[in-house]
# Entry
Amino acid sequence: MNASGLLAYCRQGFEPELAAELTEKAALAGAAGYARAQRNDGYVIYACEEADNLRRNLPWQDLVFARTKLMLIAELRGIDPKDRITPILQALEAHPQRFGDLFVEHPDSDAAKPLAGLARSFGNALRPALRKAGRLSASDDARLPRLHVVFVQGDHLFLAIADPHDASPLPLGIPRLKLLPDAPSRSALKLEEAIRVLLEPEERERLLKPGMTAADLGAAPGGWTWVLTREHLRVTSVDNGPLRQHVLDTGLVEHLRADGFHWKPAQPLDWMVCDMVEQPRRVAERMASWFREGWCRHAIFNLKLPMKKRWDETRLCLDLFAEQSQRDLIVRARQLYHDREEITVFATLRGAR
# Structure
C-alpha cells in the first residue's frame, strides 16, 4: 500500500513528544497532515500528502526528538513470510530511482528487538534481488538515496527513503560508541555523541583545536572534562565534588571547588560544557548569560526534561535561550541515544572560529 509522509525514529517512550514536534513543525512548513504514534513503539509516522514540502522545508537537523528522518513511500501488511521480496519490488515500481545503499532494520524498542535476526537475514536476501532488478548500486554510493526496509512485525513493514544529506548515516540513527575503561563515568558518552552528531565534520576540526580553553560546569566525577582533555583542550572543571585522579593527572585540568551554576570565568573561554541537574528553564537562562556576557564562543549543555509536556518545555527553553543570549547563534538540539530524560544543545556564535 502506497504511503506518503515521514517516518522518524525516536527513543522508546518519547513518541508523543516527537509526534507533537512533527505536527507543529510540519504546520509551520505549510504541510497539512497528522501523526500516528503509539507509546513505546520507537517511531512516529507523520502522514502527509505534501511529502516534497516536508522533504524541502523540514530539515532533519531541525528536529529535536528524531534520530533520523525518512520519507515514507509504502506500508506493507500481511506479507507472506515465504516471499517478502516480491511485494517490496512491486511497491518500488512507483519509485523508479536507484538506491546507493540498503538498510533493513527495526525500531529500537523492546517489542521490535526480537526482529533483529529477521532484519539481518532478510537484508542478505533482498540486497542481491535489488541489484538484479537494477535498483541498488553494486557498491555503496553515498551520493544516491538510501532505501530503508523497516520491520515492525514479521508480516508488517515500512518502505522509506533517506536523503543522505538530510538523514543520519547510521542504522537507526544510533552511533555505536564504546565506553573506555578509563572514562570516569558513563556520562562521557553523552558528550562524545554530541560532538559527533551535533557538530559537522568541518566544525569538529575547526572548533576543537588543541590548546583551546574550556569550562566544565558541574564537572564531578570528570566524565565531560575527560572527553575534552582527549581533544587536548585546557579545562577549568568547576564542582565542589572530587574529580578522578587520572583526569587531573593529564596536566590539562584545573579543578575549582565552586558552584558551577554561579561561577564565571575571569577571561573569555573558547568552550563551556554543562551537564548539571537543575530545572531546564534555569539552565537555559544561565547558559544564555554565558553568551550574552561573552564568556564563551561555543557550548554544549543538557536540559533535564520534566515527566510531562516535554515538547512544550523543550520549545520554551530553546526559545528562552535564544532570546536571552542576545547573540546571533547557530543552535542545534537533539535527544541523543545516550541521553535519557534530557536533550543536548550545541550552540556557537555564528561565524566564530
Observations:
- The CA atoms of residues 77 and 156 lie 4 Å apart.
- The domain at 2-173 is CATH 3.30.2130.30 (VC0802-like).
- The mean pLDDT is 95.
- The first helix runs from residue 15 to 28.
